[in-house]
Amino acid sequence: KSSGHGHDEL
Amino acid sequence: MNIFRFAGDMMHLLSVVVLLLKIHKMKSCAGISLKTQELYALVFICRYLDIFTGFISLYNTIMKIVFLASAFSILWYMRSHKVVRQTYDKDQDTFRHYFLILACMVLALLVHHKFTFREVMWTFSIYLEAVAILPQLVMLQRTRNIDNLTGNYVFFLGTYRGLYMLNWVYRYLTEVHYHHRWLTWISGFIQTALYADFFYYYVKSWRNNEKLQLPA
Fold it and tell me: Transmembrane region positions (chain B) (predicted)?
């Protein structure tokens, strides 16, 4: 899971 | 990953596949707005800046490559392919999309989560995606004859963003640190709302089994 600040959605 | 987001990504993929197939098979891009396609290419470029630096999952990386490749191949077809480019009705595609780019960039510089280059570019891509369909919707109103592939294209795009909203609700309810994504939700809601009237006429025409006509 990405960190709170990473954007893991396309 | 949840079913809403996966289904949304598949709808998004389907929309670009439908468009590419239409252009490739019919060697025609009649009724397609080049400006909307240019905006989408810009959305993907600004959003996937981390494609080589950040790794989230194989799925994420592959989908980013697919979306970038499809966006660029649609642009290549509509601008450079010797046959297809003749079928682009430029004088119907009149939306001044440079204003959209400027407005979204200014807004991203004012309203963002973090003032870093990557975050501002990501925010810009979120705002720009919300309005990228406008030139296409304006062109559909103007050309009035909507071939069903173009109709499907816009329908899948609207469904993709609608499913993403369900995904945001789901993640808001299930994930702790997901509460600060309100900026995405507002932009996503506006984007989906832009499709509302199109959906109404699309479903109506589908139900009455008649040609899709948007009001003038």
Answer: 55-77, 98-115, 121-140, 152-170, 182-203
- Residue carrying structure tokens 């439908």: B18
Q: Is residue B137 part of a domain?
A: yes
> Tokens representing B8?
């949304």
Mean pLDDT for chain B?
93
The residue with tokens 């025409």 is B205
Quick check: B182 pLDDT over 50? yes
Query: Is A5 in Cβ contact with B9 (below 8 Å)?
Result: no
In a domain, B169, yes or no: yes
For residue range B34-43, what is the model confidence (pLDDT) as tens digits?
999 999 999 9
Count of CB atoms situated within 10 Å of the CB of B16: 22
* Of B161, B166, B152, B88, the residue nearest B126 (C-alpha): B161
Give residue A4's pLDDT.
45
The complex's ipTM works out to: 0.82
How many domains, in total, are found in chain B? 1
Tell me whether residues B114 and A5 touch, CB distance under 8 A: yes
Chain A residues at the B interface, defined by Cβ less than 8 Å, are: 2, 4-10
What angle, rounded to 10 degrees, do the helices at B3-26 and B58-80 form? 30
